Amino acid sequence: MQNEHEDQNKKHRQLETFRTDDKNKSLTTNQGLKVSEDEHSLKAGERGPTLMEDFHFREKMTHFDHERIPERVVHARGYAAHGEFELYESMSEYTKADFLQTPGKKTPVFTRFSTVAGSKGSAETVRDVRGFAVKFYTDEGNYDLVGNNMPVFFIQDAIKFPDLVHAVKPEPHNEMPQAASAHDTFWDFVANNQESAHMIMWHMSDRAIPRSFRMMEGFGVHTFRFVNAEGKSHFVKFHWKPKLGVHSLVWDEAQKINGKDPDFHRRDLWEAIEDGDYVEWELGVQLIEESQEFDFDFDILDPTKIWPEEDIPVKIIGKMTLNRNVDNVFAETEQVAFHPGHVVPGIDFSNDPLLQGRLFSYTDTQLIRLGGPNFHELPINRPVCPFHNNQRDGYSRQTINTGQVAYHKNSMADNTPSTSTEEEGGYVHHHEKVEGRKVAARSDSFKDHFSQAKLFWNSMSVVEKKHIVDAFSFEVGKVKNKDVRQQVVDMFGNVDNGLASAVAHAVGVHAPNGSEESTVTKESPALSMENKAKLPDTRKVAVLVGDKFDDEEVETTVKTCLDAGMNVDILSEKYGTLTGQNGLEVEVDETFLTMHAVLYDSIVVAGGEAENPQKFKMDTIDFLNEAYKHFKPIGILSKGQPFADASIVEMTDGVLSYSDEDFTNQFVKAVAEHRHWNR
Ligand code: HDD
């Protein structure tokens, strides 16, 4: 797919040199030899044994036998797209990073979203954190912002990461459950590692079941540093704010989608980009002066803490647009190698012990996953600026480094490749003064695990709180070990007694005992999804239509939806053309068999006649019931009324009838609202 952004996109131009199109070409071996036979191996007689000398058979089979590489140890299930980042205003006051200097400057990006726990083939709408990793191909080298859709993390020190992951992955003795945290070992880990409290509140919230990658926030999580040309440093946290707002599924729906369409999130992203609905996030930064490091009631190095946006505002500095799908998922999405240590001058690290450990882990994992030290040469990983050094050889080296000299310092090549001074763009680590004794310990300032968990709880709407209680009840309800269930309830009694007691009631253990409920009363409205943008754009609407439908009503409704930026499917009992009572013809896009109510944001029932009226009626009612249970907007056209009457749908919040005053505008508003909780 060619689009207007590509000409200016340096990464696109670079990738173009690696693309190959096999269509209309002769089949050859990897040595370029034309092949005359690709269906029958070479045999001694038609019914005889295959011969060793059949080099084409051997090459084809060997390559196939080696096609798989190890999946990522976490974040295995992911999907990515290309795009660009455009800067709104110069950040030179804070950082000398070249891509953050000139308003309007565009930098190519590649962004991969992922679930964490599930394996590569697992379903996508599971309850989990989502990875949100962005590679900026800047003129100074690659900068990776490897974040998540939640702003905090489970643990405070990277040394505990293998333990966390062992606990959440399928249990080792029976490899169950897949892509789920609802099992004994995960919750045993939580109860015995109470630093996880704040993250678990996020994990039990609706943020863990996003409606779309396009409707998630992203966070760099750690505190990083911006350093300007004068060497002055600020602490910084990064935020991605989706233009479409932050929206989620409901749990029953999420579970059903996993069966109906395990590719739901990747399909959503792929289709949006193919349809030209390019996806946008604004990049925001929170900044703290170095002198303010100790001014807060939390430690800014602690990755289990947010900086409340009401106290430290998010400054919006630019926009990322994803506008191009990959050509080949393995070559690009699977082989891309992110690393929080890929930085550019002007961006540096803090001493967050989780970040410090990550700086080791990411290169290390690529060595096994991508088979050696030359993964930076893979097309998707290559910087768009030149790179030269004395690193040589290793498995699958692509570059042919010419010349005699591969060491520093030298005189025979005039001591090149040469290092650069700071002024010439050389990366110089921030001159932070550090002193201390060697201790394997954690600062006391990291020991308050419950205040921000309570802040999060206080900031939730009534509905969000209910969903959190339900999520805990489901997850802890799946824990077989009653002692672990009790430990979890006792732990969250330290956050909120009402929450813990409700969960205790649902999972059959005692109300929290010995817990000390946090006394924090503060709220942060920015944490509630209720306060995010609400738009009808790209929402998916199914119009359920039979023959002899009301032409005008269907035409008006479809046009209204399309004009408001929604996507519309005409859905019926079978593919083909339907004819309205006055002769309007519409093409059927999907059928009751190929789709399901959970795959749409909204249902409009137009009614009409069917070949199999009983089945048509049952299917229509099923769609309506599901949409109603999942709080989705529903439109009822005149001929759809009998179907609605036979369903559980009541004329309440978010249910609109064509005869209502101002139906079309009200319907668009109802779709923008996303869910109607007052049912
Ligand atoms: Fe990590 C992958 C995000 C902590 C070790 N991580 C990975 C990916 C994302 C994150 C988005 C997938 C990148 C992609 O799409 O290829 N990880 C995070 C965040 C963390 C975090 C936001 C906490 C703030 N991670 C973390 C720790 C460690 C790792 C503490 C180990 C010390 N992460 C890895 C890894 C992975 C990875 C094992 C697996 C595949 C990969 O790196 O390339 O090295």
TrEMBL record:
Region listing for Disordered, in residue ranges: 1-46
Pfam families according to UniProt: Catalase (PF00199), Catalase-rel (PF06628), Catalase_C (PF18011)
Entry superkingdom: Bacteria
Residue stretches of biased makeup (Basic and acidic residues): 1-25, 35-46
Catalytic activity from the UniProt record: 2 H2O2 = O2 + 2 H2O
EC nos: 1.11.1.6
Residue span(s) of domain Catalase core: 28-416
One term of GO molecular function: catalase activity
PROSITE patterns: CATALASE_1, CATALASE_2, CATALASE_3
Keywords, alphabetical: Heme, Hydrogen peroxide, Iron, Metal-binding, Oxidoreductase, Peroxidase
UniProt cofactor(s): heme
Family recorded in the similarity comment: Belongs to the catalase family. HPII subfamily.
Function: Decomposes hydrogen peroxide into water and oxygen; serves to protect cells from the toxic effects of hydrogen peroxide.
Name of the protein this chain belongs to: Catalase
Species per Swiss-Prot/TrEMBL record: Sporosarcina aquimarina
